[in-house]
Write a structure and sequence with these properties.
CATH architecture of one domain: 2-Layer Sandwich
Structural class: alpha+beta
Number of helices: 8
Largest sheet: 5 strands, antiparallel
Strand content: 15-25%
Order of helices and strands: EEEEEHEEEHHHEEHHHH
CATH class of one domain: Alpha Beta
């Protein structure tokens, strides 16, 4: 495998530093992301990507590689990093909904952003985005991590595939708290349109029916990733996902 660093761009968050960098790997431009010190973002990102694609949603495909292949990425003892290919073609750029929607420094309300999203995204896309976030318990869908792929010459745009889902599937829950089932099952914080998934999903839940899949199919799809985690974390994710699939996706 030929690996060449292009650009390193770490991100600071409330969970610490998330190390990430663009590489050229065997001729392909690839984004590599590690985990924060107390997080398991890389593993969650891959699992959510697989779940979304299984549901027929437009999602960036992520996969895992051994962390020691990428010494530039800080990974705090985790053994794997997540990778994805650049989803832009030549002559395209990504604009988040925030960057595209802000015309001045005036602060916009949440309802402004909801109306803006409804007017600029296909109904199916918003359904996929918010439904997937609800099923996997994504707590960090802020206004800069979803948006549009824009043609630089024509200004034509389309919805970008769903990406940046590392704050899902209990990735930010400390190991000591994984036994607290009551805490896990109410761990329902959401962004950007409502503060809880139970309220946010009602904005779009009448849109489109989900692909007919079973919970067993979902677990099979992510089983190899679960095996890389501790038994305690893997079991907690399985229980948490089963509860959320039934509650939000009517998946049993």
């Amino acid at each position: 495998m030929s690996i060449k660093l292009i650009n390193k761009t770490d991100t600071r968050s409330s969970r610490g530093i998330l190390s990430k960098a663009w590489y050229k790997i065997d001729g392909n431009v690839v984004l590599v992301k590690g985990c924060t010190q107390r997080g398991y973002e890389s593993y969650s990102e891959v699992m959510v990507s697989r779940i979304g694609r299984l549901l027929g949603f437009s999602c960036v495909e992520y996969w895992l590689e051994e962390a020691n292949l990428f010494p530039d990425i800080s990974n705090y003892g985790k053994k794997h990093v997540s990778l994805c290919r650049d989803f832009l073609n030549d002559g395209e750029l990504f604009l988040s909904i925030y960057r595209r929607g802000v015309k001045s420094e005036e602060k916009k309300s949440i309802d402004f952003w909801l109306d803006y999203a409804r007017n600029t995204f296909p109904k199916e896309y918003l359904f996929q985005l918010l439904m997937l976030d609800a099923i996997v318990g994504n707590t960090d869908r802020h206004l800069n991590n979803f948006g549009y792929v824009v043609d630089i010459k024509t200004s034509e745009y389309r919805a970008a595939p769903i990406f940046d889902t590392g704050a899902s599937l209990l990735a930010w829950v400390d190991s000591a708290d994984l036994d607290s089932k009551s805490k896990m099952f109410v761990y329902d914080k959401s962004k950007p349109f409502r503060s809880k998934h139970s309220k946010q999903i009602k904005l779009v839940e009448e849109a489109i029916k989900l692909e007919h899949i079973s919970f067993e199919q979902i677990i099979y799809e992510i089983s190899d990733v679960l095996q890389l985690l501790s038994w305690k974390r893997a079991q907690a994710i399985t229980d948490y996902l089963k509860w959320r699939c039934n509650k939000y996706g009517n998946i049993t």
